[in-house]
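---------- Forwarded message ----------

FYI, see the DUF1479-domain-containing protein record below. Original note from H. follows.
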Amino acid sequence: MHGGLKSLRRSVQPSFSRYRCLASAVPRSRRAPKEEGSIAAIFTSLTQGEEPNVLPERFTSLKRDIFHEGLVESWREVLAELGPAVEEISILGSDIVPRVSYGDIEKGLSTEQISRIRRVGTVVIAGGVPKEEALRWKQEIKDYATTNASHVKGYPPENIQIFEIYNSKPQIQARTHPSILSTHRFLLSLWRTSNPNTPISLDTPLSYFDRLRIRQPGDAKFALGPHIDGGSVERWEDPGYREVWRRIFGGGGAWRSHDPFDATGRDEAKFDLYHASNACSVFRAWQGWTSLSSTGPNEGTLRVLPMLSLSTAYTILRPFFRPKDPHSTSLKFEDWEADLDGPRFPGSSIGKTQELNERTHPHLRLGRTMVSVPRVEPGDQVYWHCDVVHAVEAQHRGLGDSSVLYIPAVPLTVHNASYLRDQRLNFLSGHPPPDFPGGKGESEFIGRGNLTDISSPEGRRLLGFEKFTTNEGGFKAEFVEKANRALALE
Ligand SMILES: [Fe+2]
C-alpha cells in the first residue's frame, strides 16, 4: 500500500521545472468543488422521474419581460415548418446524419457537405484515430479501472457504465491526438463571429476534460432521455445567454436569421448559474466523443434530433405558449395560446440539464424524430452542436460493449481560459475537473495520466500548460493577454 502511494507521488511529479513549481504550491481550483456524485445528478428524470420542479415566481416576471406580441407570429411560423421537417426525418432516419471520412476533412469538405453538417448539427467522422490505437486505449482504461477498483465511481453505482474517470493516460493521449485536434480545428472553423471584436479565438482549441463510457450489452440504466446540455433556465434567465437568442426573440420572422454558428454572445453567456454538478460552465461549441468500439443503432449509442435551427427556435419559444385546453393534445396553432401567468418552463429545472419529452415539447414529435447515429468503428468520432437535442439509447441490445471517450471541441475565450487554469490544477492533483462531481477523484489512483503523457508543445497548450500567442496586434493582442492572465501560468 505504502509502495503504491510512493510510486503514485512519483508519477505526478511534472517533468518540467516550471510545472514542478505549480504542483508544489498545492494549487487547487479557484472554483469551489461541485457536489460529489455521478452524471445522474443533472437529470431531473433520473433523480425524480418525470415530475418537473416548480420554479420560483420570479420566472413569471421573466416571461412577461421577454414576451411581446411579435412572438405569436414566430410561434405560428415555427409550428408550420416543424410539420414537414418531422416528415423528412421520419423517412430518412439515421441516414440524415452526415458521415464524412477524416481524409475528406484533411482534403476539405464540399460546400454541400458543410451545409448539411450545419443544418443537421451532428456529424460522424470516420477513420481519424487508427482502430488499434482506440482499442488499446480501451484496454488500458479497463486495466486502470481494475487496478484502482476500490476507488472507482460511476453510474449506475452497482454496475458502472459511465465512469467518473477523467485522468487516465489514454484520455490524455486521445485529447492531444493530432487527428482529434485537427478535427476540432475543422469543427470550430464552421463557427463565426458576427461582431469581429468578439473575444473568442475559433482557431484555438482547448481541452475540456470529460469522462468515459464503457456500456455493457443489456444495460438499460444509462438511459439518458432527450436533453440539451449547457444549462436549462439559464437560456432565458441569464441576460448574456438570452442575447444568443436575440433574433428568435425579435419577432416578425427574425427567428429565421438566428445563426446557430454565430459565436458572438456565447462568450458572455452563463451556462451554469447554480454551480450544478455536471453542468458545463464553458462555451463548448461541439460536444463529442471518440468511439472505442464497433457500435450501431440499438447498441446503446447516441440519438440526436437532426434539425438544429428549427428545434432551437421551438425550444426557446416553447415556455411562452400552452394548449388552450390543458387536457388537449392538439398540436394546431389555433389550439394554443400565450402562457404568461405562471413560472412554467417545460423541461427546465434549476441546476439541471434542459430535458425534453413528448409531453413537454410535443411538436418536436421526439418519438419519430430522435434518430440514432450510424454505425461507428473504434477511432471514429461523433460531434453534435451545443444546442442539439440528444439522448442515449434506452437499452443496449447489442453483443459487444458500446464505449466512448467524451472529447468536445472548445474554443478559446477568457472564461474558458480561466476554466482551463483550474482544470490544469485539478489534473495535476488528480481531482475531477471543476465542472464535474467533486471529491477525491483519482488523486489516490495508481497510474493516472500526467504531464509526461503529453508528447507535443501543442498538446501542452491544449491543456493549459503553455501560454497563448498571437502575431496580431490591437484587439486580438489585448484578448490574448487577457486569456493568458486568466490562465495564470506565472
Ligand atoms: Fe448530453
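H. also flagged this: The radius of gyration is 22 Å.
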